[in-house]
Amino acid sequence: MTLLVSLILPLLALWLWLPVNALSRRQRRWRISLTMGLAFVGLGFATLWRLDWLAYEVVAWVQLVFGWVLVMFVLLLAFLLLRTLGWLASRLLARTSTLATVWHGARLNDVAAVAIVLLASWGIANGLRPPKVQERDLVVPNLPAELDGVRVAVLADLHISPVKRAWRTQRIVDEVLAATPDLIVLPGDMADGGLEASGRFAAPLAQLKAPYGVWLAPGNHEYYYDYTAWMAHFRRMGLGVLENQTAKLSIHGRTLAISGIGDLAALKPRPYVRGGMAPDLSKVIAGAQGSDVHILLAHQPKQARNASRSGAVDLQISGHTHGGHLLGFDRLVVAPFNDGYVRGEYKVRDMTLFVSAGAGQWDGFTARLGVSSSIDVLVLRTR
Questions:
Q1: Which of 186, 151, 175, 188 is nearest to 362 (CA)?
Q2: Dist. CA 16–CA 306, nearest whole Å
Q3: Which run of H or E residues covers position 112?
């Protein structure tokens, strides 16, 4: 997919400048060359990353640059579609109309090109900025009155890496602890790269504490690098790692079952999937029998349909989508690939699904525009 996207980028550069009026041959060549050069920067960085010649400490930064270029071309595609629609509409007017000449004018393109570079850069800065706590009430079916008001902190998609240093992880940990949750859940994609490359940047996670524990389920990115080593490392840090497992917690005289399920990545074997286990819903349902309420940590929200059909899960907490990253892109691209789920609360049959916008994102697509990262604190409610 990365290669296909990279090959499309030069075509967008041509689409941007070829239809523009009032440009000399030299001006047109200069603009096409500049934009095409930027496209080939993206292609070159994608090639470097995929060849696996570099240490991950370098690859993470290569991915960041590739992601910056990719976001520019996502914004460029949106502009080109808008420009084409505007031009088609203007064809209904007289050719001498000012509106009819604006859409393919050099000034509009120049302004758009500068705006796209600035927006993409601002988006990268937004993505790297540490998230803030966002607290919300969440109604959970079958929640006993004794559990009304239980506070669950959700830390999804941290994607800790050499780009996101330990100071960022520490800032997030401090924010979580200041929110005083009753329990903390981490529904996958905690780190990128191998343990040797990124382990030290995850060290502050060992400080996470809550009265009813800190619970983690794997995400697809753990399957790409040192799955077994990462899970063992998280356990050594004191986190409750749930690999198709269930823990039963006694809270105010009631039993809350919390399960963590394997990721769907295991069902599609690929060269870069290195370890991990397939999801086993029946196993965690069996482990939760006899509980008053059942919370499932499933990294990808697409698992909600099976979980809801089982009738044995009251709340599923997921991540994976990063909230969709960009307004417009979230609903048009990210949601369709995730069964329509992108961020926030959903009712799926008799089950509640909460999809976190994530406390971080993968370095290869870091930008956020109009969709902020978040540390979610869910206050569970009976109604």
A1: 188
A2: 44
A3: helix 106-128
